[in-house]
Structure to design on (190 residues):
């Protein structure tokens, strides 16, 4: 007879309260906040979901932070709606970019472009090449394997295949072709 050995955990503390709005500050600070804060928003639709991103950036907090070369502080709110369910994620960040180098619109674009790096390089290394599943942890071996994976990503991108996974499967099916490609990349362009 099956038996449950672990009960469902209940939340110990109440959910976090939302951060104070500028209206919670005295009038002088509210005026300073409104003069300084910049907001940018974007909406995207795709893959069955709607997403709205709102970034608010300010230099108002720079004098209070003990952080070298801080240029701006920002709050990014990501609101996603998929399959009738809405999730809200709030991210706080700081950057060395000053307001002259990046206003709120540019910061929003930069935070969005960050995921292009994650999806383009790290996803390929993690999923296609199995980096996260690798059990090598000691000495210089992890660094050497990471370097070899970077070389593999560069080599595989040079192939005429629809994806990195397809190129990996081709070479796994025919290792001699992989060796030929490494010695003479033009040899596989048939």
């Amino acid at each position: 007879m099956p038996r449950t050995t672990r009960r469902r955990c209940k939340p110990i503390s109440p959910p976090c309260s939302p951060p104070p709005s500028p209206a919670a500050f005295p009038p002088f600070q509210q005026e300073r906040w409104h003069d300084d804060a910049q907001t940018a928003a974007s909406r995207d639709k795709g893959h069955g979901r709607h997403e709205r991103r709102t970034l608010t950036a300010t230099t108002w907090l720079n004098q209070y932070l003990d952080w070298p070369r801080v240029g701006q502080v920002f709050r990014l709110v990501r609101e996603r709606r998929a399959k009738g369910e809405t999730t809200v994620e709030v991210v706080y960040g700081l950057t060395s970019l000053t307001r002259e180098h990046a206003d709120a619109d540019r910061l929003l674009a930069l935070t969005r472009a960050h995921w292009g790096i994650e999806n383009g390089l790290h996803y390929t290394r993690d999923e296609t090449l199995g980096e996260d599943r690798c059990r090598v942890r000691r000495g210089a071996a992890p660094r050497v394997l990471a370097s070899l994976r970077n070389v593999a990503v560069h080599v595989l991108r040079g192939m005429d295949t629809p994806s990195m996974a397809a190129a990996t499967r081709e070479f796994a099916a025919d290792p001699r072709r992989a060796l030929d490609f490494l010695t003479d990349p033009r040899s596989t362009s048939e």
